[in-house]
Amino acid sequence: MSAMAAARLGFRTHVFSPEAHGPAAQVAAFSTVADYADMEALRRFAEAVDVVTFEFENIPAPALALLESLRPVRPGAKILEISQDRLLEKQFLNHAGIATAPWAAVHNMAALAPAAARLGLPAVLKTTRLGYDGKGQTMLRGPDDLAPAFALLAPKPLVLEGFVAFAAEISVMVARGVDGHVVAFDAVENRHKNHILDITLAPAPLPLTVLAQAQDIARTIAEKLQLVGLLGVEMFVTADGGLIVNEIAPRPHNSGHWTMDACSCSQFEMHIRAVAGLPLPPATRHSDAVMKNLVGPEDMALWPQILATPGLIPHHYGKT
Ligand SMILES: Nc1ncnc2c1ncn2[C@@H]1O[C@H](COP(=O)(O)OP(=O)(O)O)[C@@H](O)[C@H]1O
Ligand SMILES: [Mg+2]
């Protein structure tokens, strides 16, 4: 989707991916299929392009370091490093004065009981790295859950988070240009099914003051990170309208797909504009939208019906 947005702006995209025939390669001008550890392929790729960006967070640090030595990488490797690690992420956010769930690093089983005593139960034990769609985390409801939870996730480095009894989950997509100009899309509500994003409501049906504050938080994060590019900020809204940042993702986000059809400049165009050093237009929403994520054969069985329904705008990733 970023490659398609780039094409509309007159750019040709070169996709580097370990996956052959991946979604992006299907719509890009050039493609390199190679492993992230293949330094020679990375070097040839960097030498063929003007600027590098990414849509996937778990790119190994050495690959990014090599690319960054040859071409501008936007957002930079430092931002990726922070967002790859839940401990660095929370330290950065708290240091910037932004509220997160209370948390404690858990480096061994002996550290878990005191952490649970301090934060209270329920709490969520997570791997610090490589979690997605609820993978790499488990709930602690009572004292008997500690040992099995640790055994499930160890020996990876872990973090314990206090459970946030949220009223809603929201996210804001924010972009910052090379010139430091920041734009934030409207805050949206995200509802999950089996830990996978199911529905996004744009705008989030919440008080305007809460939505404005969510955008302010996202702008602050973009500025403190000196972001160049696009960043998604996931937040919890508490019953009293308080905002707690859950995690950040320096890339287009699945909760931002609605911008393709409800904004004059989508998150993908904003992403490409930011990394290419172009001006950022206002992130204005011209319509309300609901995004429904189609997951697996059951949802895809609805495809013909979706195509036949006026008002629905289908987007197929092209994943095999
Ligand atoms: N501390 C928490 N309190 C309450 N719910 C949480 C907490 N952490 C995660 N969750 C729930 O689990 C979901 C996935 O967690 P998250 O940290 O966003 O991991 P990922 O999206 O990488 O799988 C969140 O969207 C939220 O619904
Ligand atoms: Mg998440």
Keywords:
320 residues; alpha+beta; Rossmann fold; Dna Ligase, domain 1; D-amino Acid Aminotransferase, Chain A, domain 1; 3 domains; seven-stranded antiparallel beta sheet; four-stranded antiparallel beta sheet; 12 helices; 13 strands; globular; binds adenosine-5'-diphosphate; binds magnesium ion
Report on this model:
The chain is of the alpha+beta class and 320 residues long. The protein folds into three domains: 2-73, Rossmann fold (3-Layer(aba) Sandwich); 102-162, ATP-grasp fold, A domain (Dna Ligase, domain 1, 2-Layer Sandwich), CATH 3.30.1490.20; 168-307, ATP-grasp fold, B domain (D-amino Acid Aminotransferase, Chain A, domain 1, 2-Layer Sandwich). It contains twelve helices and 13 strands. It has helices spanning 2-8, 39-47, 61-70, 77-84, 86-95, 109-119, 146-153, 208-224, 259-262, 267-275, 296-300, 303-307; strands at residues 14-17, 30-33, 103-106, 123-127, 137-140, 158-162, 168-176, 182-184, 188-193, 196-202, 229-237, 243-249, 289-292. Strands 7, 8, 9, 10, 11, 12 and 13 form a seven-stranded antiparallel sheet that branches. A hairpin with a 5-residue loop joins strand 7 (168-176) and strand 8. Helix 1 (2-8) crosses helix 10 (267-275) and helix 2 packs parallel to helix 3 (61-70). The longest helix has 17 residues, at 208-224. The two termini are 16 Å apart. The mean pLDDT is 95. Magnesium ion binds next to loops.
